[in-house]
């Protein structure tokens, strides 16, 4: 019996935006093109058009003025289903035999509907901890209320969104999750086959050789949205600790935009703010850093941490979320188990340049073992399995 070749309709909730989920989706499409795997890629953008790019059929669908903003450049279009006839026409021409959804936004909801309507097997991938993002933002908006009340409301919102997400993710036959904790949680709560889909990193692009001189100061870096869910205000606590320790030869390099930028600019004494960076400017910014402080507690993976490691920059991360599973503690980074530890661990490395040098080498070597090709080979194996009709619990897909 000849095994059917996957012809996948890929519904990317985030594709053109500047975030880790969009970057991962673009990487998957690049892999499909490179390996001549037929895919139909459907995503929201600023215009509606279709075109062929090698083996991939690209379909860009314009979001309406009634879209609800979720993040910089990302929105939920309440009228997105107006594109359904066009997408069904594309389906008729492409003839997919499987569907891949990437979240709970407008694009993937359409994909889930078509999968149900046409009885097509579906793979799902989890990219964003939406429940935690919503919880942090609500907590910020209610800061004027008593702490115990704010905490209760935020936890209720987080739990309800997570419950809804688990119902939604019962539809795919296989769910690809970015860290081991989510693999276990999603498998337990959906009863579906949940597997690890890590992330690769381009070690030629993110490279310590792109470093230039910066006056001898140790550069403490942060890359990401300057919003409550990323917890960037911890950087101010780090600086206070350094000042209290009498450490003066440092500078913060903060890459990103968001609602907390003005507050950070007012409260950090020695910091450069670059705004959003992409391409070579971003790679050079990473290379300028000596220590990467990433206090986010909501990241499902943490692509920026892996990019920092590839740039030879050890990372200090939270006990919550995916970043703690990226680093090798004590070798390529540290895990801060309380807020004050970000400052303590940063000060420790600043006072021990030999340890910092060793960790930089270890960070780079660790990143060099991560391959995007290995990640996406596992994704295509998941496609093949849903086409076989009864996915089994094979060994989990890994990024190494």
Gist of the model:
The chain is of the alpha/beta class and 400 residues long.
Main traits of this protein?
400 residues, six-stranded parallel β-sheet, alpha/beta, Rossmann fold, eight-stranded mixed β-sheet, single chain
Overview of the molecule:
It is a single chain. This protein has 400 residues and is an alpha/beta fold. The chain has two domains: 8-126 and 169-200 and 371-388, Glycogen Phosphorylase B (Rossmann fold); 208-367, Rossmann fold, CATH 3.40.50.2000. The protein is 41% helix and 19% strand. The strands form three sheets. Strands 3-4-2-1-7-8-9-10 form an eight-stranded mixed beta sheet, sandwiched between helices. Helix 3 links the parallel strand 7 (98-101) and strand 8 (122-125). Helix 4 runs antiparallel to helix 5 (147-168) and helix 10 (303-310) crosses helix 12 (353-367). The longest helix is centred in the middle third of the chain and has 22 residues, at 147-168.
